[in-house]
Amino acid sequence: MTNNFDVIVIGGGPGGYIAAIRAAQLGFNTACIDEWKNATGGPALGGTCTNVGCIPSKALLQSSEHYEHAGKHFAEHGIEVKGLGLDLAKMLARKDQVVKQNNDGIAFLFKKNKVTFFHGRGSFVSHPSTGSGQSENALYDIKVAGAAEETITGRHVIVATGSNARALPGAPFDEERILSNDGALRVQGVPKRLGLIGSGVVGLEMGSVWRRLGSQVTVLEALPTFLGAVDEQIAREAKKAFDKQGLKIELGVKVGEVKNGKNGLSVAWTNAKGEAQTLEVDKLIVSIGRVPNTIGLDAQAVGLKLDERGAVIVDDECRTNLPNVWAVGDVVRGPMLAHKAEEEGVAVAERIAGQHGHVNFNTIPWVIYTSPEIAWVGQTEQQLKAAGVKYRAGTFPFMANGRARALGDTTGMVKFLADAASDEILGVHIVGPMASELISEAVVAMEFRASSEDIARICHAHPSLSEATKEAALAVDKRTLNF
Ligand code: FAD
Ligand code: NAI
To answer: What domain count does the chain have?
Structure first.
């Protein structure tokens, strides 16, 4: 086996493994190094997303939603459920199986595309004699520290080392009581009292899972507004639904000391009025954002520039300060999303091949997989107002959609924002059933710079939730047909 590669990718998450596959498709001799270990110490390709992120969280969201439906909503359909029980160990084992299928799937894709995989930690090696990092013709030596240690050499290096959960100062993760996303996905018994710090994406998704399974959930959020990045009208609608479900969310708080006691944790906090409070919980999930992961990369060995948060500094095309060294995904600026990482990985591989890889940051969709789901693409109404853009808005409630009524899930709405003069769609925001799937139509429309009238004139299947999208587009012109 050769140790010389055209492209070496460090990190096998969605940014890295997709970059490696695309590079191999383009004819490059490609290696991917990833250090993630499964429970038995073997490789587990897929990074945060597959192992402790997107995939396991969605598996548990699905299982817990089934459980909640069986307990609370099947009766509305005339289905009687007697003796409903929860086998948490089985639910977690199913989640682990889903993760394994994805790990194995990526290993298979590497074989299929002839990507050489190295299990271990990849780090830059200083190489002054070849002038590594100094010229376009530099070759980079990368040390792989795995079961054995070896050095491989590459003409291009793509850094895709992802991110790690940020801990609360003074309260490091022990994954027993103070949990990151990792521990939050493998709690062995349903905690009676669960606290969450941060009502962002992880907080809402994990809070939903454990609330559905029976925990009393309290979420402490520093910001005074709920889901500040989400369109305000949509965030208000979502908050109403979460309040109704019993997810207790305290906004504008200041979290103080976290003390470990005999019977659990005690979290000191101050509410929005400045009053001192204490939250007693059995487990605490800390979901206050993530930090780029460059630990172990030995960036300084070659002078790879990082910012003050440890993120690799890149330009719009994911080029670092070193020739032929690129970086993608959570380890660079921009939203920490798997599909953003993937798009950057593809674009970089294509740029290495001399093609014009492109990522449109204006059309990266966001989805929060709660119930109701929240999904959006483009600008929010508050962003348009702040920028002084003249726009027209149209909304359509799922309450007036036949398919939503048949599903028994009529919470929420679809909202369109279109330019007042040209009618070009500037943003689409959805809170409601299957928002994660519905948003794709909006992404396609915006990518093709469609107008709201374009969507309003397209034939949508009946009865389908997508009719709410069409109706919201009609609402921009104040001519909904079913509301
Ligand atoms: P990562 O997935 O973090 O992968 C980096 C990989 O590099 C890891 O395997 C790591 O072990 C490896 N690595 C690091 N350093 C080295 C080294 N020196 N040598 C070798 N290997 C190394 N995003 C979505 O779009 N949708 C979702 O539904 C979603 N759900 C999420 C749920 C949770 C609970 C969390 C925490 C995140 C979620 N995300 C979701 C975010 C998503 O997981 C990340 O945006 C995505 O994983 C980033 O991909 P990446 O390839 O940049 O990094
Ligand atoms: P987040 O950035 O989404 O939310 C963090 C929240 O914590 C914010 O609301 C912030 O104001 C709050 N916060 C920060 N410090 C605090 C403090 N000291 N006390 C109280 N609140 C505090 O981060 P999160 O939820 O950890 O997720 C990390 C990232 O992972 C997300 O931003 C997203 O990029 C990705 N992710 C994506 C998912 C998806 O696409 N469905 C699901 C889960 C995660």
So the answer is: 3
| Euclidean distance between the first and the last CA atom of the chain, given in angstroms as a whole number | 66
The residue to mutate among 164, 178, 201, having the most atoms of ligand 2 within 8 angstroms of its beta carbon, is: 201
Place of tokens 């009609």: 474
Residue 13, ligand 1, Cβ within 6 A: yes
Residue 265 domain-assigned?
A: yes
Provide the residue type at 39 as one letter: A
Q: Residue type for 160, please?
A: A
Among protein residues, the one with the nearest Cα to ligand 2's atom 15 is 288
- State the ligand closest to the CA atom of 345: 1
Q: What is the DSSP letter of 72?
A: I
Q: How far is the CA of 103 from the centre of ligand 1 (A)?
A: 13
Taking only the tens place, the pLDDT of each residue in 18-67 is 999 999 999 999 999 999 999 999 999 999 999 999 999 999 999 999 99
Helix (H) or strand (E) holding 376: strand 373-378
User: Is 328 found in the same domain as 212?
Assistant: no
The model's pLDDT over 419-428, given as tens digits with 9 standing for 90+, comes to 999 999 999 9
| Contact 222 CB / ligand 2 (< 6 Å) | yes
What is the pTM for the complete model shown? 0.97
How much is the pLDDT for 131?
A: 47
Same domain, 14 and 59: yes
133 and 155 belong to one structural domain: yes
Q: Is 197 in the pocket of ligand 2 (CB under 6 A)?
A: yes
Protein residue with its CA nearest to atom 43 in ligand 1 = 49
Q: Residue 436's closest CA among 374, 355, 344, 349?
A: 374
CA distance 445 to 460: 14
Q: Which residue has its alpha carbon closest to ligand 2 atom 30? A: 336
**Which atom of ligand 1 is least distant from the CA of 330?**
52
- What is the pLDDT at residue 138? 76
Whether the CB of 50 sits within 6 Å of ligand 1: no
C-alpha 476 – ligand 1 centre gap (Å): 38
Active site residues: 462
Closest listed residue to residue 289, CA positions, set 168, 160, 161: 168
Could you list the residue range(s) of the whole structural domain that residue 314 is in?
A: 4-164+291-359
**Residue keyed to tokens 């309450």:** 399
Among 311, 344, 359, give the residue marking a domain's end. 359
Q: Which CATH number is 139's domain given?
A: 3.50.50.60
